[in-house]
Amino acid sequence: MEYHDWDSPIRTKRLNEILKSKRKEAGLTQSRGAYEMRCHDSYLQRVEKGKAKPSITFLVDLIELYKIQDAQTIHKIWWLARGHAPPGNVNPLAGMSIDSNFRDLVLQDNKCMAYLTDGAYNVLAYNQLWADVFEGSPPKNMLEWMMLNDQARGGPMVKNPVLVDWGSQWAPCFVTQLKHVVEMSGGKNQQLNQMLTKVKADPRALRAYSSYADTPIHSDGACRPFHHPNEGRGYVRLFPVSLVGSAATIMRLEFTKMRPTYQTVLTAEGEVQEEIA
């Protein structure tokens, strides 16, 4: 893979060669390409020449318009045009179909609560430990439940919400994830778009989105307060396992009554004890 300094003339030359040739292969003139992208000719020219950094959504649309499907070529374009790897596999439906072997991993987990979601956070599988959190069946869409359901976040009629301290401990991560997956789909996954619309229509969710959506927050190994209906109040450590090339995820939640202070980290030199932030 080719990597060049952002100001390198080699970078701009290579990007121009790739995009110009792919546009012609797609049977498009620059003017027609600009028309389809709903931008000015001069802007498309600057993008193709590497003189303007396109938005994620613009570059996703451009790759689709130019009918570029080769993974290596797409990877090159992202590095040359934006300076980083492509989000997921730049497919609006990435992670919407999951191999059943991943379901088996969830069902076999008898240590942690676990569930499997697709690229739009629809629940495809869950184990009994996760089912025990709910009186009926677990929610069908995890992000919608976590962002909009009072059983999750608390409300006038809910004394003990599952996600304790929702506004400060849980919501920031959820809205960051939502914005990321919407961008990753290029705005073309209708279910994610509808979810974003619902979030922005809900006053509590909107406040969280407006405050935290642009803040990078990662849930890997995070420890957050959690109310278990059978065990009472405690904490869960989150262990998300993202499936390659999509937002589909296996989420494992380890419940403890006391907040853990240290974790065991594996390194090539052996196990290391680290303090949990």
Automatic annotation (TrEMBL):
InterPro entries: Cro/C1-type_HTH, Lambda_DNA-bd_dom_sf, MLTR_LBD
Top-rank taxon, per record: Bacteria
MF annotations from Gene Ontology: DNA binding
Record-annotated HTH cro/C1-type domain positions: 19-74
Species in which this protein is naturally found: Streptomyces inhibens
Protein name from the UniProt record: XRE family transcriptional regulator
Any matching Pfam family: HTH_31
